[in-house]
Amino acid sequence: MGNKASLFIELDHGNDVPIEAGKSLKGKVVLNVQRKLPAGELVLRLVGSEYAIISSRKGTKREERVIARAFTKLNLFQGKRRISKGLYSQPFEFLLPASLPSSTQFPKAEGKNFNGRIQYRLSAEMGEFVVNNIFHVLSAPLGDNVVPCMIEPTSHALKKARVLNKGFLSIGACVSNSHVGRGQSVKVSVSSRNDSLCDIERVRVKLVEKIEYKAQGDAAEFKQQLYENKDVNLPNLRRHRSQDNLRLSKKKFIRTKSATYSEILADLVAGENTFRVPVPKSARDSYDGSLITISHFLKITYYTGALTENPSTTIRTCEERWIVKSIQFI
């Protein structure tokens, strides 16, 4: 560009401060002309994209998908043939859709061969003069709608050395509202019926964030733990084995399973055993995109004395597909 002129984009809220989705992005395009030059069409573009990169021995695959786009022509020099030396500015305003996900940079995990990001960019162009600005979006607050989630009870055979039958453990769980945001907490209820010779030693809960990538046909995923309680305080939980060291036979258990499940569901509705799981502010938005999917789930595991895989149940938090609308230029 030499020293003829230079372009700048200034945002009213500050170039390094995130703007909330659903609000107006305001600013101005500034042209600093050092020497007289021909007038041209001044164009402003806004693009939001998701990027995914997956590397392997066969090479690296990259892919980009646009999730938001806007375009407008600014009439700063309309009707002029030449632009004299001076400082010129043109204000602009974009109304961002409330459905936009937050800007996110996924650092490359240690030992992993993939990463990605969700990014928003403003660019201004007039002939050979071009400027690009990255700006950050923060997703809009969640609405007040409550989305409860109840997991159907399941039964698990407890075996010693995978052979000797020790009986059955039936478990269930629910959350009062799975539609939660960063800095809030999830209220969880659990219930169980122990028709085995094994005691429930402890109950562990984990909040997990799962990130899935896709790029040109390849796929990869990464899980990270956001919260863990290795021994949840549940004073009303029925931890102990069946009375008199008796266990239900498989046939008898099948006959009584319906009644057992009804008891578990009644406990969950009554909130017999409840606790809260905090959602840290470091958690990312749940997001279902073309290349990147971010989901969250609770994993509740019952530890018993049986030499078998410990029974567990999983509850997913509320996930919404982001429907990205056209950005309105005001």
Main β-sheet description: 5 strands, antiparallel
CATH class of the largest domain: Mainly Beta
SSE order in H/E notation? EEEEEEEEEEEEEEEEEHEEEEE
What fraction strand? over 45%
Quaternary assembly: single chain
Q: Total number of β-strand segments?
A: 22
What coarse outline follows from CA principal-axis ratios?
elongated
CATH architecture of the largest domain: Sandwich
- The chain-level structural class is mainly beta
Contiguous helical run count: 1
Rg calculated over all Cα atoms:
28 Å
State the end-to-end distance.
30 Å
Tell me the helix content: under 10%
Average pLDDT metric? 84
How would you characterize this protein structure?
The chain is mainly beta. Residues 319-330 have low confidence and may be disordered. Helices cover 6% and strands 55% of the residues. Strand 10 and strand 11 (129-135) form a beta hairpin. The chain folds into two domains: 5-141, Immunoglobulin-like (Sandwich); 149-316, Immunoglobulin-like, CATH 2.60.40. It is elongated, with a radius of gyration of 28 Å. The strands form six sheets. Strands 5, 6, 9, 10 and 11 form a five-stranded antiparallel β-sheet that branches. The protein is built from one helix and 22 strands. It has one helix spanning 250-270, and strands at residues 5-11, 19-20, 24-33, 37-38, 42-56, 59-74, 82-83, 86-95, 104-106, 114-126, 129-135, 137-138, 149-160, 164-175, 185-196, 200-215, 218-229, 274-278, 287-288, 292-304, 312-316, 328-329. It starts with a strand and ends with a strand.
